[in-house]
Inverse folding.
């Protein structure tokens, strides 16, 4: 029996690119079905992340034109990671496998064939990994690669050059549903679930239309979320650095006492000012990092819903 596939596509202000990429996703779905790899009941599930443009109207129109298109809409914008999670949780009880992919057409949809093949061979998770970034600018390529290296150095378990293009089986998703974090970093959380996994390489293309919704500011914010959500290594670095500064300070105190006893003490306001400013700066940085973790704890204890679905393109009886 062929597995039922749901392609999960988060959408935020994608009215320009959606009419271009939606037929591509449908064509891929039908080609996989025609090849006997997936069930004919498979679907393309769009997740509207509180878009301000006509994205939801386009999704509704698509769903009326072809039954393979379905969509859900969040009550407000909650971010890319929450949108992907909403789609995965919506699909986990009605399908066998899911493939999450961005709407912009940059990720090669033909890699889905290899992902499904890997699943049929026994893999429960298949990560789409970018083989090259030739279409990116030097700045984009440098910051993206530094992003993954920095995450790994800080103790976050991530697959290098993997974003959110991945196949996950319903079996894995049912276990993943037990992860209740409010601060989401899916590309670091999925590997924690375990199960047999592999990677599929693909070339990343340029965006087909519209503008990117992941500028450097959001990339940095995502990196901070990933580190603080998955690792306590920064806190350990603070402790180690604090011990080092304390040791240097102790040596400085001994040096000052010996100098004073030898009668060679010289007034040194400049050196004292530099030391005070340095230590104060270190303290503020450490407090900022600790504050980031405390903020995460604060948000987790509230246990607010990670997503709220306000609309669906189907009623409960039709699915």
């Amino acid at each position: 029996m062929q597995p039922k596939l749901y392609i999960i596509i988060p959408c935020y202000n994608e009215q320009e690119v959606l009419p271009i990429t939606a037929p591509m996703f449908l064509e891929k779905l039908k080609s996989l079905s025609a090849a006997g790899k997936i069930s004919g009941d498979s679907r393309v599930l769009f997740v509207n992340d509180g878009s301000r443009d006509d994205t939801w109207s386009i999704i509704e129109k698509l769903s009326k034109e072809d039954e393979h298109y379905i969509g859900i809409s969040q009550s407000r914008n909650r971010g890319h990671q929450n949108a992907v999670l909403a789609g995965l949780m919506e699909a986990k009880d009605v399908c066998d496998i899911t493939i999450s992919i961005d709407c912009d057409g940059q990720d090669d949809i033909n890699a889905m064939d290899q992902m499904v093949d890997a699943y049929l061979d026994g893999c429960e998770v298949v990560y789409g990994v970018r083989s090259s970034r030739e279409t990116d600018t030097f700045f984009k390529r440098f910051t993206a690669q530094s992003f993954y290296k920095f995450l790994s150095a800080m103790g976050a378990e991530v697959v290098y050059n993997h974003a959110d293009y991945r196949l996950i089986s319903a079996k894995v998703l049912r276990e993943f549903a037990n992860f209740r974090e409010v601060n989401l970093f899916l590309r670091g959380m999925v590997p924690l679930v375990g199960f047999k996994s592999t990677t599929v390489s693909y070339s990343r293309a340029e965006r087909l239309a519209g503008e990117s919704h992941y500028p450097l500011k959001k990339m940095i914010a995502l990196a901070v979320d990933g580190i603080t959500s998955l690792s306590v290594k920064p806190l350990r670095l603070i402790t180690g650095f604090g011990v080092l500064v304390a040791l240097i300070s102790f040596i400085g105190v001994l040096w000052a006492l010996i100098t004073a006893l030898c009668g060679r003490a010289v007034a040194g306001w400049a050196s004292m000012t530099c030391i005070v400013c340095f230590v104060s700066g270190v303290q503020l940085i450490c407090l900022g990092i600790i504050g980031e973790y405390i903020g995460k704890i604060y948000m987790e204890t509230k246990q607010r819903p990670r997503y709220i679905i306000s609309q669906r393109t189907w009623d409960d009886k039709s699915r």
Summary: The longest helix spans residues 269-302. Residues 5-138+159-213 form a domain with the Spore Coat Polysaccharide Biosynthesis Protein SpsA; Chain A fold (CATH 3.90.550.10). Residues 43 and 68 are 5 Å apart (CA to CA). The mean pLDDT is 80.
